[in-house]
Amino acid sequence: MRLVLLGPPGAGKGTQAFRLSQILAIPQLSTGDMLRAAVSAGTAIGREAAEIMERGGLVPDQLVVDLIVERIAQPDAVRGFILDGFPRTVTQAEALDEVLDGNKLDCVLELKVDERQLLDRILGRAKQALANGDTVRADDNAEALSARLRAYADQTRPLTHYYETKGLLKAIDASVPIDRVTAELVEAIQ
Ligand code: AMP
């Protein structure tokens, strides 16, 4: 099964993509995680992405498309995958269609959460990371969040129309408790 999870920062994409990957036994492919790993490792890609990510912007399309093309070609993705945080622009979605080369996506799941809840969730995540002794994401703060929300509204939301016209889009209320969101996602892909 080939799935895309769409949704603004703080909607729970990472949490739900992880759960679906366990339930469906297919990998979760998160461009955010791949980029953070590149930043930590200090690779050329990481150096290019670090500053853009920190201020909450989107890294260049070609850079993430190259990451995904390489990842989708790995053997564990043959049976399917859950894309978490990709595509984020119509250009990326078109590139994905090309890469899939006729192996169509099964479903695009849009996680919908009221914007006022998002800041609480993001700041909560930062607080939790601190409490656990983990590193706080460089972009989990109010200033970067407002840039991330702008990027979502301007560049990513148009994707809902893109996938709606293809008959692939299913919207899920992601403001309810985590288990209920997972149950609704599972039902949506039956
Ligand atoms: P995420 O972990 O999905 O919230 O992504 C964290 C940050 O990584 C984003 O705010 C962007 O700066 C960058 N990023 C992740 N995925 C993409 C993408 N598909 N296109 C552009 N930038 C991305």
Largest sheet at a glance? 5 strands, parallel
Determine the N-to-C terminus distance. 11 Å
For the CA atoms, what is the radius of gyration?
Answer: 16 Å
Q: Please name the fourth-level CATH homologous superfamily.
A: P-loop containing nucleotide triphosphate hydrolases
Give a description of the structure.
- This protein is of the alpha/beta class and 190 residues long.
- It has one domain (2-189): Rossmann fold, CATH 3.40.50.300.
- Helix content is 57%, strand content 12%.
- It is built from nine helices and five strands; from the N terminus they run βαβαααβαβαααβα.
- Strands 2-3-1-4-5 form a five-stranded parallel β-sheet, sandwiched between helices.
- Helix 1 (13-24) packs across helix 9 (178-188), helix 2 (31-41) packs across helix 3 and helix 4 (61-72) packs parallel to helix 5 (90-100).
- The protein is globular, with a radius of gyration of 16 Å.
- It starts with a strand and ends with a helix.
- The model has no long low-confidence stretch (mean pLDDT 95).
- The protein binds adenosine monophosphate.
- The site of adenosine monophosphate has 18 residues, from helix 2 and helix 3.
Key terms:
binds adenosine monophosphate, 190 residues, Rossmann fold, alpha/beta
Write the topology of this structure:
Blueprint: E1 2-6, H1 13-24, E2 28-30, H2 31-41, H3 44-54, H4 61-72, E3 81-84, H5 90-100, E4 107-112, H6 115-131, H7 142-156, H8 158-165, E5 169-173, H9 178-188
Parallel strand pairs: 1-3, 1-4, 2-3, 4-5
This protein binds adenosine monophosphate.
